[in-house]
Amino acid sequence: MQNADPSTDLGDAALPTAVVSLKVIEALANAPHGLGVTQLSNLLGMPKARAHRHLSALREHGYVTQDATSNHYRVGWQLYLLGRACVGRFDLMTLAKPALQRLRDEVGQTIVIASYADDSVIVIDFLRGTSPIEITLRPGSRFPHNTSAQGKVVLAFGPDDVRDGFLSAPLAQSTPLSITDANALRAEIDTVRARGWSDAPEQLFTGINALAAPLLQADGSLFGTLAIVGSIHYLPASADPQHVESLLRTSREISAMLGFQTD
User: Fold this and answer.
1) Which of 52, 131, 193, 209 could form a disulfide with 108 if both were Cys (CB 3.0 to 4.6 A apart)?
2) For 186-211, what is the mean pLDDT?
3) Topology (CATH level 3) of domain 6-75
4) Contact of 28 with 34, CB cutoff 8 Å
5) Quick check: helix, strand or coil at residue 224?
6) What Rg do the C-alpha atoms of the chain give, in angstroms?
7) How far apart are CA 203 and CA 174, in angstroms?
8) Following DSSP, what letter does each residue of 120-156 receive, concatenated?
9) Contact (CB, 8 A) for 121 and 105
10) Cα dihedral sign for 200, 138, 114, 57?
11) How far apart are CA 115 and CA 95, in angstroms?
């Protein structure tokens, strides 16, 4: 059992709530495998009930996530967006900008980097396309996994508990072409995993398609997704092999920046 560090003992209930929440986030950020409520309360020297209240509030707003198997808490997508906005210490869009610009110039469409939560993908940032019909996305926008190309990548390459949890719930319908049958979605996930990329022609928005591929971290886990987004006129339902080749090459290049190495 971990002992509380006196320098981080938060047993004093008079401390401002915001300070306690920041200390909770700091502890989770320094725990690669996450922390349970008991571990966190011992580490910070606070009652379990108080730790649980902070974790629940932070989870509700996307600052932490909870592993369905271990019940451990980890930092979430909203914290990534906040850290990126405040510090830019690890700005993937800047780091990968040359690769993203090459991809944009090759395909002419909007290029999107996204993270993910249990039920959706979250846009981190995008690079505007050059085609006459330009697609823009607001950072922080969320789209269901089953209706988006990026979400299918998450279900194919992301954590098992995310996939299993998502498939156990009713599937949203954004357009008449959205996949709302769990068995059909499982078959689609298998296809995405086998070929290494996904698409979603008019499944999220009518007239819009996307091609997406995974961005992998050093340990092989999913960091997020890279996508080409455009009008169905420029990204038809039958994907252009050159678009797919450019997407996969760029996703491998950015994954290498994240530390992922292929055999």
Assistant:
1) 131
2) 97
3) Arc Repressor Mutant, subunit A (1.10.10)
4) yes
5) strand
6) 20
7) 7
8) EEEEEEEE---SSS-----TT-EEEGGGSHHHHHHHH
9) no
10) negative
11) 16
Cα–Cα distance measured from residue 237 to residue 108, given in angstroms and rounded to the nearest whole number: 17
The CA-atom distances, in angstroms, between 260 and each of 100, 122, 208, 216, 263 are: 18, 22, 31, 6, 10
Q: Tell the residue number behind the tokens 């979400």, with chain if given.
A: 151
- pLDDT score, position 13: 54
How many degrees, rounded to 5, is the angle at CA 155 between CA 35 and CA 224? Answer: 65
**Under 8 Å CB-to-CB from 198, ≥6 apart: which residues?**
149, 150, 152, 153, 156, 188, 192, 211, 212, 213
Backbone angles phi, psi at 102, to 5 degrees: -65, -45
pLDDT, mean of residues 108-118? 93
Q: Where are the domains of the chain?
A: 6-75, 91-257
Q: What does the pLDDT read at residue 263?
A: 64
Q: Which residue has the higher pLDDT, 67 or 148?
A: 148
Would you state the pLDDT for residue 15? 62
Pair of tokens at residue 197: 């990329």
pLDDT digits (tens, 9 = 90+) for 33-75: 889 989 998 988 888 888 888 888 888 888 888 887 888 988 8
The CATH class that applies to domain 91-257 reads: alpha beta
Q: CA 254: distance to chain centroid?
A: 15
**Distance set, CA 258 to CA 38, 61, 127, 196 (Å):** 32, 27, 19, 18
The structure tokens listed for 126 are 């995008």
Task: Calculate mean pLDDT across residues 174-201.
Answer: 97
